[in-house]
Write a structure and sequence with these properties.
Radius of gyration: 21 Å
CATH superfamily of the largest domain: Glycogen Phosphorylase B
Helix content: 40-55%
Largest sheet: 7 strands, parallel
Order of helices and strands: HEHEHEHEHHEHEHHEHEHEHEHEEHHHE
Strand content: 5-15%
Structural class: alpha/beta
Distance between the termini: 9 Å
CATH topology of the largest domain: Rossmann fold
CATH architecture of the largest domain: 3-Layer(aba) Sandwich
């Protein structure tokens, strides 16, 4: 997921290394130096302490000029590991389960994570936000320390690569794909997400039953991993209960093709998202969207303009919004088409990479970036940026 961003940084004159928990092969294929480290998204204090030690050693070995972190735990662990020896830029790409869930465990952990965020801020040089709601949250709870806040919207989408994939999709028979999936002439509602409770999958399943009662030929395609999601995963028996009109496909690499057969894209997440990449892909494909009214989603979807926004955990509202788009396909297509230029203009990877490049140049030249949205820059001075992240689908 980060490789296009890292490649874009490299094309702007940066020497890039990556560290994460995934396999090295996709990085090495792109000529990106990759270092693995042990990391447990779901657990344990001992594992976190081990990760801190590994990150500290990686920085000593790589000797980067800048460390860039993504995802909740790396954003906390890397500053604690580095402790000011190298400038750290952390990107808040969503607030995660602790700050999104109403579960008692999440509520109990919030004070702990707030304290950890304040501690990590002591060794953070700048914090990048993908939406203004998260920035306001960090300011309200004094989670920034003396480091400035910078707004760079989304992780970016490689518009050229996505459109090339769409062209390739058209060379492959859409009818063949529909036949392979057993869709026939059915209308399709597509969701691309980790299959977890926090991503709103149980709500979507209930909404699917409501839609099925009205339009029995509609099929819901769920694309994304389930088995890897530990205690957050939706039970397979729950998904099976809604067959045959709900079809779980697992993780797929042909999302542009699947978007080509979708009539509606549904994003029922309960997370405080950064800017969901799946909405950018659906928008670039011109598919009308239904999403929950949460930070990040409402940065992409505007009510009754390119889709609908609905409350969290409200299957009736979700079903009504999906039915509204299915019942007037001409209007739905017009709404979907409005997203294409929006994504090209505001969320293109080049816009995002220019923003980060300018931030790094400011940081390296003055030691402190401005507290503001970063304008584009095209400088190409070579520096070394190490990017720490965990492996996951956003």
């Amino acid at each position: 997921m980060r490789i296009p961003f890292l490649s874009a940084l490299r094309s702007r004159g940066f020497r890039v290394s990556a560290a994460g928990t995934g396999v090295a092969r996709p990085f090495s294929k792109c000529g990106i130096d990759y270092h693995g480290y042990d990391f447990d998204r779901f657990g344990a204090r001992i594992a976190d302490r081990m990760a801190i030690g590994q990150l500290s050693q990686l920085v000593r070995d790589i000797r980067p000029d800048v460390v860039q972190t993504f995802d909740t735990k790396p954003n906390l662990l890397a500053p604690l590991a580095i402790r000011g020896t190298v400038p750290v830029v952390r990107t808040i790409n969503g607030m995660g389960w602790v700050f999104s869930s109403a579960h008692l465990k999440a509520l109990a952990l919030r004070p702990v994570y707030l304290a950890l965020q304040r501690l990590a801020a002591r060794w953070t040089t700048a914090t990048v936000f993908q939406n203004t709601a998260d920035s306001r949250f960090f300011h309200r709870y004094h989670l920034l320390g003396s480091s400035p806040a910078v707004l760079i919207r989304s992780s970016g989408i490689d518009v050229g690569a996505f459109e090339a994939a769409q062209v390739q999709t058209h060379s492959i028979s859409i009818a063949k794909l529909r036949s392979e999936l057993g869709l026939g002439d059915s209308e399709v509602v597509l969701t691309v997400s980790r299959l977890t409770v926090q991503k709103g999958i149980p709500t979507l399943l209930e909404a699917a039953a409501i839609v099925h009662a009205v339009r029995p030929d509609v099929r819901f395609l769920l694309v994304g991993p389930r088995e890897s999601e530990g205690p957050f995963a939706v039970d397979q028996a729950l998904v099976d209960r809604y067959a045959p009109y709900v079809i779980a496909l697992g993780a797929r690499s042909d999302v542009p093709a699947l978007l080509g057969i979708a009539d509606v894209f549904a994003c029922p997440t309960e997370y405080r998202e950064g800017i969901p990449r799946v909405l950018l892909e659906a928008g670039l494909a011109g598919v009308p969207m239904v999403a929950t009214r949460v930070p990040g989603c409402d940065d992409v979807v505007a009510e009754n303009w390119n889709g609908h926004l609905v409350p969290q955990r409200d299957p009736r509202a979700l079903a009504a919004a999906i039915l509204d788009l299915l019942q007037d396909p001409g209007r739905a297509r017009a709404m979907g088409a409005r997203s294409i230029e929006l994504v090209r203009r505001e969320f293109d990877l080049n816009v995002v990479a220019d923003g980060y490049s300018d931030l790094y140049q400011q940081l390296l030249s003055s030691g402190r970036p401005r507290d503001a949205q970063i304008p584009p820059s095209h400088d190409s001075t070579e520096h070394h940026s190490a990017n720490f992240h965990s492996s996951k689908i956003s």
